[in-house]
């Protein structure tokens, strides 16, 4: 089956008259394959007017089952000939092809495979392989057109990620093996390293074990790789105890005094020419005073301090790490979301642009606000936060904050995430302040309390 349509009539831009040529027809979308009830159903091949092509299974007029999809790309003739020569394995083919080309600046068309795998209701769904223009490749599970489940991403730079995906991003547990042989294994949120993770620095032969925040190590320990890989699980648990308590005898580390070279090198003893010679005991005493080792200071209860800080980081980032799995519509409810939408509309750049042009019907449908306006929106909603916190909220919502000259684009769904993160952090700070106040009140000594008692 072929679809054709009439070509648009050409009108002279100066005279306004139409061309005297007869109407010509141009090819539209073409489909060759099986049908059922006047719909594409079974196996078939469809080619769009732009040259894109799908070959595979159909159901009720939609791509459904197993199939492959290609896009048509225009490449410079030099690049196309290089591609052909690399396929044939002959360098002479390039020279011959270039000599035979009438116009070296001309473009040639080529089909590039984009995806092969399972489809459901016209979307990638199931197991499939995606091929990207930069040479990267993804192999794994899909859901409703997005990478979801378990999958492997082979990046063009040689890095490889193997792990969990949610909403087209790395979310969950995964392993990143870099081209330089560095390895990260741990938790991910929104395509960034977030949570507990191990990082092996191959060139430095060190291993970092601890918390990650927004793709950066935040709180943990560095271990020599030789010690790390030679240790068993019990040894590793002893290195960092996440539930250590200050009263545990194991974590009561005192400052260690080791014979360390003194950085200060004094001048030799200066004795007056007529001074009597020192006795061996006196000279020994002077030597001890001048060259005694400098004690190395250490953190008392280091494991307990580390465990406390890790717990603090996890508490602060708990809402961020749960964001990909949180149904904000259910958490906030329709009434609260309507309130946010009203304030957001006042900063909606699309609404302003389309409103100015008189297109009221489309105004606000796909709206966005400037990320730099997030603080003002939060203020109208009753939240008082500093600029640093707002930038963190926007970043954790998956949006680039930008600058005042070139701000990032904040969609309504992104703004809801920002409000959610802001509300959670402020609530946490209130709880912490109340807990600290109670703790301070409980630590008031009995001797101080009698001052307020009545006799």
Number of helical elements:
12
What is the string of SSEs from the N terminus onward? EEEEEHHEEEEEEEEEEHHHHHHEHHEHH
For the largest sheet, list the strands in their spatial order: 1-2-3-4-5-6-7-8-9-10-11-12-13-14-15
Give the rounded overall mean pLDDT. Answer: 79
> Fraction of residues in helices?
25-40%
The coarse silhouette is extended
Task: Tell me what portion of residues adopts beta-strand conformation.
Answer: 25-35%
Structural class: alpha+beta
Cα Rg: 34 Å
Q: Give the termini separation.
A: 104 Å
Strand segment count? 17
Count of discrete domains: 3
Major sheet details: 15 strands, antiparallel
Low-confidence stretches: 11-16, 83-106, 238-275, 358-364
Q: What does this protein structure show overall?
A:
The protein has 455 residues and is α+β, with helices and mostly antiparallel strands. 32% of the residues lie in helices and 31% in strands. The chain folds into 3 domains: 24-86 and 107-131, no CATH class; 141-256 and 296-325, no CATH class; 328-442, EF-hand (Recoverin, domain 1, Orthogonal Bundle). The strands form 2 sheets. The protein has a 15-stranded antiparallel β-sheet with strand order 1-2-3-4-5-6-7-8-9-10-11-12-13-14-15. Strands 16-17 form a two-stranded antiparallel ribbon. Strand 2 and strand 3 (39-47) form a beta hairpin.
